Amino acid sequence: MAPRFPKKRLKILHRNEEAASLSASPEGSILPLKVFALVLVAIVVQTSVAPYLTVLGAKPDVALITVVCLAILRGPLWGATVGFAAGLLIDIALFQTLGISSFLFTLAGYFSGRYAEGVDPSSWFPPVFTVFVCTAVVQVLHAVIMFLLGIESSVGFILLRIVLPTAVLNALLAAPIFVVSRWWLGGEKRGLFTE
What we know:
Blueprint: H1 7-24, H2 31-48, H3 62-74, H4 76-93, H5 100-116, H6 125-148, H7 155-184
Helix pairs in contact: 2-3, 2-4, 3-4, 3-5, 3-6, 3-7, 4-5, 5-6, 6-7
């Protein structure tokens, strides 16, 4: 008697088989270059355009959204690696304290990839939900680290004027960035946001 797997488990197994066949194909050898190009574009947008886009006091974090989308598409190892590299490049580009963004983006990428292993990646909900949660957690942890470094500010101000608006704005941008990331990395074009 053949073992019976739930539908979600079969989708995860099928996705892992696709990833293995992709890495063995010639297209799989250019995947790191595509990921690097996508992250580089996100960092350029983050450092040049995003600081001038303010909605209700919140500025979009395009690099974090891209890291989370890549983690959902490629898994926790890719998410952590891309998160570390993107965070380090953001710190260098903005002359920030080295290591803070890379640490936070690594956590966001890894746990986003772990979460995505148990959900349907073709649904619209995982990228939006994951980006919202990761943005809120990263913003709170960043505020805690800044407090530990001696930069004090009001907790209410941080939660209501920075964390919540930024999380909502990033969640709204998650779906289009996820679609572009999936298209760029060669994901399937049909059934992208089906339930």
